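Internal tracking record. Fields below are filled automatically when a chain is submitted to the structure queue. Please do not edit lines marked as system-generated. If the sequence contains nonstandard residues, flag them in the REMARKS field before resubmitting.
Queue: standard
Priority: normal
Entity type: single polypeptide chain
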Amino acid sequence: MVRDTLTEEEWTRFDRDGYVRLGRVMDDEELALLGQRIDDIMLGTADIDYRRTMMQLDSDPERDGKPGPQSKGRKGATLAYRKIQDLEYDAGYLAYMQKPLMRHICERVYGEGTSIACFRAMFMNKPAHGGTELQWHQDRWRDLDRDPQITVWAALNDSTIANGCVKIVPGSHDTLRNPESGAGFLTPEQIEELVEEHEPEYLELKAGEGVLLHNWMLHSSEMNSTDIPRRAFSVCYLDAETVSERGHTWNVMFGEGALALESIG
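SYSTEM-GENERATED OUTPUT FOLLOWS
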């Protein structure tokens, strides 16, 4: 069953640990719909505007097998994309992003009546026997006048240690570890110290389950050593009044002018 709210005990746990498991955030029908939809997007058969969709290959032959550029537009018909962003323009994904549970989370974190926007709505994929190792970091962006605080991460198929599930250090959201890093990555020395002092927790999830993460939570992930891809959908919500030095604006999810299903065709 997909619930609409968190309990006070869960909010206490989130404040203390920087994360909380949400259980099922998608029912079976929605999970199947979004799984098929992302296949269609990768294979180029979806009725979306690819010109405004960021797509990155996990392994780009023009870059010696390294991840390709993060840029707008398709890079061929393949299920081996690493990232696909701007999924709020897809009706199925937008409906998920605007569910009552997400509204509840945003109102609790940012305040009731605050307009909430989507900073990024992103499919993340580690293809079978592939994927990109992600070093320890905190999610932050120095060109913003305030930090987005939360991300809801959902598994589109089973996420396990073997296929590269996210691993975290509970409680590490209390401070910025490397504030001078534009992307929040730790230095090699900080990583060595981290590994010596903490036992990471692996966020293994069943398909359709989710987790709420504070964006300053230290996290990383490894490569996929299995025959099964590790697929996930991650949504970062922010205060819609956030100002970017680069002049970026974001689609409102909750509040005046919220993106509507009928307006994204």
